[in-house]
Amino acid sequence: MCHYPHMSEGVIGARPYGGVSAESRTAERRKRMIAAGVEVFGSVGYRAATLAAVCAEAGLAKRYFYESFETMEDLLVAVYDHVLADLRQRVAEGVAEASDGLAVVTGALDGLFAWVEDNPRAGRVHLFEVLGVSPRVDAVYRAATREFADLLVLVLQATEPTIALTEGQQKTLGMAIVGSGLQLAQDWVLGEFHPSRAELVEDARGLLVALATGGA
């Protein structure tokens, strides 16, 4: 009897296919799973989501989920990272040309609200679905919120150099502005009040700038 060398699935899977490397195929499948996670978590909610629904949305067999993730929570964290990267870009664009504190706050708020309006499923993930899932996800959420707050204060201080704040005051100010923006966005999405995006930004910016500048 002839004995042939054993070729495991991992070895076969590592071969290029159609000119595309195994690593590239794995990365592409991971992107599809994350995109599916945004869609599913942002529509039915994370807690109601199933592995079958995510894989069906991605158009991939269940075994490919475990190629990149061990649990649905792992996917949620990856989805949240993806969502945050997109939001950071939108907010950065909003404040890029800001020349004073009013423009910074206006740009940041409009960037946030425009992003939520244009990306309702991603917005739901950011504003609701990551809250209270687990200590791990809570820590990721808090770290992201602090990062946004710190960056916003840096931009504010660059455009308003006369604002003198201690390190503690900087952190408090940043979290106050970002937290207010997130709460406004949550209420807006939930329909607690119904202004247009422009009206919402206009109403909020003066109050937040007064907070940032001490009423100056």
UniProtKB/TrEMBL annotation:
Source domain of life: Bacteria
DNA-binding interval(s): 50-69
Alphabetical list of Pfam families matching this protein: TetR_N
Domain HTH tetR-type per the UniProt entry, residue ranges: 27-87
Keyword Cell membrane: no
MF-aspect GO terms: DNA-binding transcription factor activity; transcription cis-regulatory region binding
Protein name (Swiss-Prot/TrEMBL): TetR family transcriptional regulator
Biological source species: Nocardioides baekrokdamisoli
